[in-house]
Amino acid sequence: MSADGAGNKKISFIQRLDKGLEGFFGYSPIRRWVERHPVARKRLTARFSLGHFTGLPLTLLSTALIVVIASLLGIIQDYLAKDALVAVDIRIANLLYSFRGASLLSFFSGVTLFAESGIVILAAGVFTLIAWLKRQRILALGIWVALIPSEGLTYVGKLLFHRARPIFQAIPEDSFSFPSGHATTVVAFYGFLSYLLVRKAKSWKIKIAILSATAVLFVLVDLSRLYLGVHYLSDVLAGDLVGLVGVLLAIGTVEWLSEKYGSVDWHQFSSAFVAPSLATVIIAASVLYAVAPAPNAKHNRPPSVSLPTSNVLSIFDKGGLPKYTETLTNEKQEPVNIIIVSREECLTKAFAQSGWLLADKVSWATIKKLSIAALFSKAYPTAPMTPSFFNTMPHDYGFEKQTDRQTVRARHHARFWDTGFSSADGEVYVGTASLDVGIKWGITHRIAPDIDTERTLLVADLEHAGIVKDTQIVPIVPPVLGSNFTGDPFFTDGEATVMTLKTCE
Predict the structure, then answer these.
(1) CA 48 – CA 60 distance, rounded (Å)
(2) Confidence class for position 7, pLDDT limits 50, 70, 90
(3) What percent of the chain has pLDDT over 90?
(4) pLDDT digits (tens, 9 = 90+) for 247-274
(5) Contact criterion met (CB below 8 Å) for 165 and 176
(6) For the domain that residue 231 is a member of, what is the CATH number?
(7) Looking at the structure, do residues 469 and 387 belong to the same domain, yes or no?
(8) Does one domain contain both 272 and 127?
(9) Are 354 and 462 in contact (CB under 8 A)?
(10) What Cα–Cα distance (Å) separates residue 302 from each residue in 18, 125, 325, 419?
(11) What span, in angstroms and rounded, lies between the C-alpha atoms of 238 and 241?
(12) CA-to-CA distance for 500 and 498, rounded, in angstroms?
């Protein structure tokens, strides 16, 4: 030990604590406990020893395994209780479907093949063969300890929970949804290979690079399952945790057997053990990608349900639709304050004639354009809108009108949802209108609290354009004082304007 300025040896934290307790109690409780429990002291010391695997390494590994299992049980509990996580599941699935595009579908349909069970089993077989020929049989065992328990748990979980998959699937999947087998596989297989490479690497830069690349692959495969519409968020999170259980078990098995029998020659191990397996994955995935059918970009909307009466408010009572828009976690926010009955092909034309433009879809290009316009306070008359939800679905249409400030930071805007109901005059749409008065957090807008004034403005613009056939004001909910999903306060009288638009030419 090093000496301090007085020439005395530095003492440890435990020794300082012991000395302090001795001064407080008049005796040393730590020393007394050690003297009375020599066996417990010996075992506790062994648990934190760095000299062998069954010391601190096993303690940390066991702790990690307990944390992972507890997290997995928490997700299962949330799923069984239909907690907020399930509400987020459905809305994220619907939101990603609304953003679905051909290029990203093609990309993610290729990414997801890296965790296809048949391909991974083939690659694991290649790794096993190489490890066996190199007389590294414990490593050959390790890959299957990572895969078999985790895949088994996933299979049992699917049978136990019987969760149906999302309805907007881009690729066909006929098994149950919870947990995700692909998420399990990518973590178990590539996580174990990553552990081997990190253990062999001597440079911390290389170790961090390997772990970072592995984490990116995990995220991409998880995103592929969500974007392709074959899993919910909780499915992939649970699958990740199940795969991590397999990895931790495999690490423990390899390290314990290696220390006990000394049969793993880490000096002989190199990336040459792993490279053929990864090459197998790439080749097999490329072949399967070439022959697989193209993913389904869009699903046909089901035909509208005709209202039994001319009263469009029956969509709430008899139709079972909510009267409020909702957040990602299914919390109520602004109530519906505009209801429009119109032919689908006439809706956007009617708003354009009234001076309200259809907002651009959210994409990297439109987000970049919006960011630049917001930074320099420039105009962007068709800027994209932050998604909002009604009956679990993101809005179908976003319309906006510039204010006198002529900047993207402030705008009149309205969101509308297709209810799936129709009357003799057309489809029934519900919506909300509000005024953006500034940028919040750099990613969304802050609204003015008086949303009734915006409703009145939108109705007046539509009527002034001469495209409204009929207008009536009806009470929907009691007067509300609340806040939206970003915490902006709003108030409303709870009324809604019901408009029937004229047929367009």
Answers:
(1) 9
(2) very low
(3) 54
(4) 999 999 998 888 877 777 777 788 888 9
(5) yes
(6) 1.20.144
(7) yes
(8) yes
(9) yes
(10) 73, 46, 22, 11
(11) 5
(12) 7
| Cβ pair 120, 185 in contact under 8 A | yes
Count the domains in the chain.
Answer: 2
412 located within any domain: yes
Residue 93, Cβ density class (10 Å: 0-12 exposed, 13-18 middle, ≥19 buried):
buried
56 CA to centre of own chain: 34
Q: How far apart are the first and last CA of the chain?
A: 91
DSSP code per residue over 65-107: HHHHHHHHHHHHHHHHTT-HHHHHHHHHHHHHHHT--HHHHHH
The token duo for 5 is 């300025």
Dist CA 194 CA 190 (whole Å): 6
Q: Are residues 371 and 458 in the same domain?
A: yes
Q: How far is CA 237 from the centre of its chain?
A: 8
Who wins on pLDDT, 14 or 330? 330
Would you say 461 and 355 are in contact if contact means Cβ atoms under 8 Å apart?
yes
> Residues 206, 339: one domain?
no
Question: How far is residue 145's CA from residue 139's CA, in Å, rounded to a whole number?
Answer: 10
pLDDT of residue 4: 44
What is the total residue count of the chain? 505
User: What digits encode the pLDDT tens for the residues 406-443?
Assistant: 888 889 999 999 999 998 889 999 999 999 888 777 67
Q: Looking at residue 244, what is its pLDDT?
A: 96
The answer to whether the beta carbons of residues 308 and 423 sit under 8 Å apart is no
Structural domain including 372 reads 305-501
pLDDT tens by residue, 319-372:
789 999 999 888 999 999 999 999 988 999 999 999 999 999 888 888 889 888
Alpha-carbon distance 145 to 248, whole Å?
9
Q: Are residues 313 and 450 in the same domain?
A: yes
Same domain, 310 and 246: no
Q: Is the same domain home to 475 and 327?
A: yes
